[in-house]
Amino acid sequence: MPTVDLNADLGEGYGSWPGGEDAGLLGVVTTTHIACGFHAGDPAVMRATVVAAVAAGVVVGAHPSYPDLVGFGRRAMDVAPSRVADDVLYQIGALDGVARANGTRVRSVKAHGALYHRLARDEACALAVARAVAAYGTGLVLVAPAGSPTLVALRGSGVAVFTEAFCDRGYLSDGSLVGRGHDDALLTDPARAAAQGRHLVLDHEVAAVDGGVVHLEADTLCVHGDTPGALAIASAVRRSLEEAGVSVAACAADEPTPRPVA
User: Residue 148's closest CA among 168, 132, 130, 165?
Assistant: First the structure.
């Protein structure tokens, strides 16, 4: 029986929680990557999202980004890899402190927005993120885009790497995502998103909007928490997978072991 993780990026509100469809999504997904304050979220939202994830039995991951509240972390920034490593380490630690205070731990790390896309193609940046993950503690999993040119380097870094594909985003024939400013960027029809997710898991393929088929091997599927109708999409994806005999389970369910303090 094939197995896949279903994750959502949550905790992207401010000052109060729940925001959007976060509460409902935690009843559907198996992992949540929570904003760490650099592109969205704040300490109160981080705590509330972690508490809700624990109550729902959902694995907690960190969702670090560039320091870009104004641009929601989606603007490209010329940040040196050494600074990227520092920023990612800081954000993991912040969320893990909240998580430990509420009975869980951060178990995976997935960059957000422009940093996520840079990690996929910029080896120096990718290895900087991997260094930050490794420095924090053993057992943490780094989530990277399926089909990324940097996957070989990331896997050679010694960090556990799981690959991700998207149910709610359009793909181009080179394996990249359609830019958010284009009509085909988002899949908001639950049936279409469910079909794409099922195809990715069972056939390891996705149809490109500009023609052809892209081969992608994904350990986890994502539904963005801010996609319109995210809860309906995630519910349709999970139902479709389970009806096809796919087991939906968190890919980073084991607790990481923290490094001893020097």
Answer: 165
